[in-house]
Specification:
Layout (H helix, E strand, L loop, with lengths): L7 H13 L1 H9 L10 E6 L4 E6 L2 E2 L1 H5 L4 H4 L3 E6 L8 E4 H17 L7 E5 L4 H12 L3 E4 L6 H11 L3 E5 L1 E4 L2 E4 H9 L8 E5 L13 E3 H4 L12 E2 L3 E7 L7 E6 H16 L6 E4 L6 H13 L3 E5 L10 H9 L3 E4 L1 H9 L15 E5 L5 H11 L6 E4 L33 E4 L5 E2 L4 E7 L9 E2 L3 H9 L6 E9 L5 E6 L3 E4 L2 E4 H8 L5 E11 L3 E10 L6 H15 L8 E4 L13 H9 L15 H12 L1
Parallel strand pairs: 4-17, 6-7, 6-8, 7-14, 8-11, 11-12, 16-17, 16-18, 18-19, 19-20, 30-31
Antiparallel strand pairs: 1-2, 3-13, 4-5, 9-10, 14-15, 15-24, 21-22, 21-23, 23-25, 25-26, 27-28, 29-30
Bound molecules: 5'-O-[(S)-butoxy(hydroxy)phosphoryl]adenosine (WT7).
5'-O-[(S)-butoxy(hydroxy)phosphoryl]adenosine binds next to helix 11, strand 20, strand 25 and strand 26.
């Protein structure tokens, strides 16, 4: 187990040490894990290429650290509690010993299907224990998992499968989500019909058991492939810097890129941050409401809790099914002590009314957390008063897919809180604020673009198959710094407040969506010539998606046209990227070099048209008034 900070004084001491001597600091943490072979060198790096290696030469298997090393002391302890969507189904409790057996068995099944170290495996599954088992089974044999959120469309999955050249897809029959029964396997059928030649087999887990079409020779049932397989499987030793997983995420330009995380550093950082931020104690029941399809689920549903030997709850359903009291019901029934969710969920449940919380007894709760987007004042206070009863610290954890783990966050019960602030960097994290010229802004009570000056163990290593894109996106904007894409404020006490993205990325309900991606999708809709997408403030989602669209012909049936746009986006990306507003416009404001002036479009979307700044340098300034005018009717 990594070391756990116990007081604010100790935090400051440890932090200072981690900056003065990062290698000694991480060396000490890494030693607490099981390694097959020790590392020769703790860190080798440059941000120029970039090339970052942690625990160089070390060999390990992360699942030995998640499972095997706990068997003696925690074999009978529950590792995972599964709360199904459907209240009529029973919750499942899986002990460390059982989970070890299930992971080994499925790992043996994958091996029997010819999956080898380094192979890429696409996992497209609902929130069931088998999703975690599939992830861990890949890691057990050194295969690289690429989990794709089960809400993404066939086109999106297909793109990701092709990019990573996956040889196997693991999926489920159906996804039971609220009142819906979503055909998940059917999406894979459609995706594979778009020419994913690398895929040999599809392994299908039976979740709901509803009827399904299987393709002879390609599709295999999970229960068949595990039949007769042993519940022990020697873990494959991998190199510290071998790839553990790929996770696709959106950026300002182009298609989503595959963020690559490697074995050793990710393991060390994941456990250290989980333990310290949540101040884990024996007997805790920890619940993170994210989906394993996002980085939060990877790091803090699967790897972090298991590495720390904790008990983690996984929930299949949605916060509002069968009613808006579901989260509180689950906390009460399973005696959850640490609860980690997103501001968007808090806002939605707050909007549903206090009656869903009244009468609930949640004395087990000790610590609350939020992640994914800036939390607003009202939601913070509601969470603190109605859920935490003002006795549970709220950890506002800032981090990203690319950072692998939490970066700026309070330590629960240790760091004095300020509502809506992510507060202080975790040990080993060296943030800084930079101005538009790339100069570091010193001192407090300042604002700038958030960068990180020094590598931490789970920093992104590359973007899959395109290292140059990784360099360009994160390491080229500011020399010798990792650029986060976020703007932030450092207050008078040196506390950080994350303001939000400064690039063309929209944060919708804590999900990252690239404007370029949505535009590409919209442009495929019938009668669309060109489009521009911006974010605007949304009461529940944090940000909504506002699309300006130029059409090839005058539109008579506007409702049908808009439906066509939404359907196309759903087909190309998934329902999470559907625009909230579609406005038909005669043109888009452009600079003389042809770049869309999003600043103006953002202002109009916000409904703030009084001060649009200087528009005289535009190629087509007249279009601004036309857009303003049609907003009223459109
Ligand atoms: C972006 C990363 C980290 C897991 C979930 C999202 C925003 C994240 C916070 C926070 C304000 C936050 C940032 C960041 N973000 N956490 N506590 N306060 N903003 O991961 O999809 O990679 O998105 O989410 O804008 O850059 P992601």
């Amino acid at each position: 187990m990594t070391t756990q900070i116990r007081s604010l004084e100790e935090y400051h001491k440890v932090y200072a040490h981690s900056v003065a001597n990062p290698e000694a600091f991480w060396d000490e943490q890494a030693r607490t894990f099981q390694w097959r072979k020790p590392w020769r060198e703790t860190l080798r790096w440059n941000f120029r290429e970039p090339k970052i290696k942690w625990f160089v030469g070390g060999k390990l298997n992360i699942t030995e650290n998640c499972l095997d090393r706990h068997l003696e002391t925690r074999g009978k302890q529950v590792a995972m509690i599964w709360e199904p969507n459907d209240l009529k189904r029973k919750a499942r409790k899986i002990t460390y010993k059982q989970l070890h057996g299930l992971v080994c068995q499925f790992a043996n099944a994958l091996k029997a299907q010819g999956v080898k170290k380094g192979d890429r495996v696409c996992i497209y599954m609902p929130m069931t224990p088998e999703l975690s088992i599939a992830v861990l089974a890949c890691a057990r044999i050194g295969a690289i998992h690429s989990v794709v959120f089960a809400g993404f469309s066939a086109v999106s999955v297909s793109d990701r499968i092709k990019d990573a050249q996956c040889s196997i897809v693991i999926t489920s029959d159906f996804n039971s989500r609220g009142p819906k029964n979503i055909p998940v396997k059917q999406v894979i059928d459609e995706a594979l019909a778009m020419g994913c030649d690398s895929v040999r087999n599809v392994i299908v887990h039976q979740n709901t058991g509803d009827a399904l079409k299987m393709t002879e020779g390609r599709d295999l049932w999970w229960h068949d492939v595990v039949k007769g397989k042993r519940k022990s499987c020697k873990a494959t030793a991998v190199d510290s810097e071998d790839e553990l997983f790929i996770l696709y995420t959106s950026g300002s330009t182009g298609k989503p890129k595959g963020v690559v995380h490697t074995q050793g550093g990710y393991m060390v950082y994941c456990e250290y941050t989980f333990r310290n931020v949540f101040q884990i104690q024996e007997g805790d029941v920890y619940w993170c409401t994210a989906d394993v399809g996002w980085i939060t689920g990877h790091s803090y549903i699967i790897y972090g809790p298991l590495l720390a030997g904790a008990t983690a709850l996984m929930f299949e359903g949605i916060p509002t099914y069968p009613d808006a009291g579901r989260f509180w019901d689950v906390i009460q029934r399973h005696k959850v002590s640490i609860f980690y969710t997103a501001p968007t969920a808090i806002r939605a449940l707050m909007a549903a009314g206090d009656q869903w919380v009244k009468g609930r007894r949640m004395p087990s709760l000790r610590i609350l957390g939020t992640v994914g987007e800036p939390i607003n004042d009202e939601a913070w206070h509601w969470y603190n008063e109605k859920i935490g009863k003002k006795r549970c610290p709220i950890v506002d954890t800032w981090w990203q897919t690319e950072t692998g783990g939490m970066m700026i966050s309070p330590l629960a019960g240790i760091t004095p809180l300020k509502p809506c602030l992510a507060t202080l960097p975790l040990p080993g994290v060296q943030p800084c604020l930079v101005d538009a010229n790339g100069h570091e802004i010193e001192g407090n009570d300042v604002e700038g673009m958030l960068c990180i000056k020094f590598p931490w163990p789970s920093i992104i290593r590359t973007t899959y198959g395109d290292h140059e894109r990784c360099r360009q996106t994160y390491f080229a904007t500011f020399k010798d710094k990792y650029f986060t894409g976020d703007g932030a404020r450092r207050d008078v006490d040196g506390y950080y407040r994350i303001i939000g993205r400064v690039d063309d990325v929209i944060n919708v309900s804590g999900h990252r969506i690239g404007t370029a991606e949505v535009e590409d999708a919209i442009n495929k809709a019938p009668m669309v010539v060109e489009s521009a997408v911006v974010g605007f403030p949304h009461d529940i989602k944090g940000q909504g998606i506002y699309a300006y669209v130029i059409t090839s012909v005058p539109i008579a049936d506007v409702a049908a046209f808009k439906k066509g746009v939404l359907d196309t986006v759903t087909k190309e990306i998934g329902p999470i990227a559907k625009p909230d507003v579609v406005q038909i416009v005669p043109g888009l404001p452009k600079t003389r070099s042809g770049k869309i002036m999003r600043r103006i479009l953002r202002k109009i979307a916000e409904g703030d048209t009084s001060n649009l700044g200087d528009t005289t340098t535009l190629l087509n300034p007249e279009v601004v008034d036309e857009i303003k005018a049609s907003r009223l009717v459109g």
